[in-house]
Amino acid sequence: MLDHFFLDSSFGTHSCLILEVLGMSLEELTRRTVPNRFPISTCKRIVKEVLLGLDFLHRECGIVHTYLKLDNLLLRMEDTKGVPLLGDSESPIDLSHVSVGPSSVVITDLGVATEIETPFDGAIQPYGLRAPEVYLGIPYGRPTDIWNLGCLVFELVTYCWLFNPEEMLR
């Protein structure tokens, strides 16, 4: 977060956040690069970045993300040159122009994050990425985020879901 302020209106006081401009999500990147694959070295760098981010959320912030998915992992942009314009969302992307370096993957969407000290046993996580404890209805914590990441690693490497949510509903 770069800054924040409050705005008063006839509807009440609103918290306004000023955030950095980020690039596309890993979901969009994988969708637009098929049939290519991320090199294993790139997958390793992405996973390392996400693990560092989760460690920060868990240890420093005391929260569990609860909704980790490729849509919520955005790439930081070095510059805006070559960034697709609005409406140019289907152009293929050459993976040789994508670099993942230190602090280049950003975990976003903390809208359903929960405090570690407050055990919760409700339904969380995208259906195909839910941890066993969520299905069993028992309290969850940090391991649910790690479960999510494990499923996402499979998805990054294979471009396939580990558990297909459509088949799980049958």
Structure keywords:
Transferase(Phosphotransferase), domain 1; 3-stranded antiparallel beta sheet; nucleotide-binding; transferase; EC 2.7.11.1; SRPK
What does this structure look like?
- The chain has five helices and seven strands.
- The protein is of the alpha+beta class and 170 residues long.
- It has a single domain (22-168), classed as Transferase(Phosphotransferase) domain 1 (Transferase(Phosphotransferase), domain 1, Orthogonal Bundle), CATH 1.10.510.
- The strands form three sheets. Strands 3-5-6 form a three-stranded antiparallel sheet.
- α2 packs antiparallel against α4.
- The mean pLDDT is 84.
List the SSEs and their pairings.
Blueprint: E1 3-9, E2 12-18, E3 22-25, H1 26-33, H2 40-61, E4 63-64, E5 73-76, E6 105-107, E7 114-115, H3 132-136, H4 142-158, H5 165-168
Domain Protein kinase: 1-170
Protein name: non-specific serine/threonine protein kinase
GO cellular component, one term: nucleus
Task: Summarize the entry for a quick read.
This protein has a single domain (about 20-170), classed as Transferase(Phosphotransferase), domain 1. Helices cover about 35% and strands about 15% of the residues. The chain is built from five helices and seven strands, in the order βββααββββααα.
Rg over alpha carbons: 18 Å
Cα separation of the termini: 42 Å
What's the CATH architecture?
A: Orthogonal Bundle
Number of individual domains: 1
Beta-strand content = 15-25%
Judged by helices, strands and strand pairing, the structural class is alpha+beta
Helix percent band: 25-40%
CATH homologous superfamily assignment: Transferase(Phosphotransferase) domain 1
Give me the CATH fold name.
Transferase(Phosphotransferase), domain 1
> What kind of sheet is the major sheet?
3 strands, antiparallel
| Annotation field: number of helices | 5
Average pLDDT, to the nearest integer? 84
User: Which CATH class is shown?
Assistant: Mainly Alpha
**Structure summary, number of beta strands:** 7
Tell me, briefly, the overall form: globular
Order of helices and strands: EEEHHEEEEHHH
Q: Show unreliable segments.
A: none
